[in-house]
Every structure is written in C-alpha cells, then in structure tokens.
Write a structure and sequence with these properties.
The protein is α/β, with parallel strands linked by helices and 160 residues long. It is 34% helix and 18% strand.
Amino acid sequence: MSLIPEDKLKSPSNFNFAPMIDFLFLMLAFFATLAVSRASLYDTKLSLAQLKTEQNATQVKQHEDPYQINLSITQEGNYKWITDIQSYTMNDLNKIKKEISYQHSIGLLPKDKNQTHILLHIDKNAAWEPIAKLIFAIREEGFEAFPVYEPEEVVIGSEK
C-alpha cells in the first residue's frame, strides 16, 4: 500500500495543444492583415515610364511639365537629386522627404500633389531595398514615384 495514489504518480499521457494553436492562428491572422494592408497602401499603381532623350544628350531633359523632380539611385544604393545644372548627393531618405515637403510648402510644387511627377532613375545593378525604401518614402509624403528607364544603346561592332 502506497501513501500516494498511483494515478498521481503517473505523468499525464496527453498534452493540451488548443492554447498553442489559438496563439499561432492569431499570429498568422495578424501578420496576414499587416501584409495585405501594407500592400494595398504602398504597392499599387507602380508603372514604369520610358525617358525619351536624344541619343547624344548627357543631361536629363525635363519636358514641358515644370513640376518634375528627378532622383537617381546608384548601384551602391546612394541617392542623388538631379537638376538641370548638377546632381546633389542625398545621404538619407529623411533629407529627400524634407526637401520635397519644403519645396511643396514654399510653393515651388503645385498644391495638387498629383501634378508633381517624381522620376526615379535607377541603376540597373542597384539592389531592390533602397529602391523600395525611396518609393515608400515618396508615397508617405503624398506624391507618386515613376521609375524611368533609358534603353541601352547598341554599339555596332561590340559584343555583349
């Protein structure tokens, strides 16, 4: 005869997984909602536009629309603000956001943000992360970003 009953000495043969499954379901629902809402806010209506320049032109040509901003992303992921005269290196996204909002607040850009076209000149070897960060930063300021490309010039007699 034992002082402790045998059913108390045996370890339970089953484990209750219901709380763990509930927790995992809630985490899955949270992250799915977060991903869908972020995609619907930032990842819609991104179109690629071709920049039409003359073959011998070295500078970026702005067309008749005076409300155009040209930004460049280099292969290393650095940002540049391109003007008719020269390009200015922008160290981080906050500088770009501040400059865009400053130009909008002093009236250099129209009040209707849809009239301002921000063209992104992206190096073909640039990583995707700085491109996406710049697009999101521009959209956070209420403007639209338009990635542009220049067709590669085919040089006769050269091999690729």
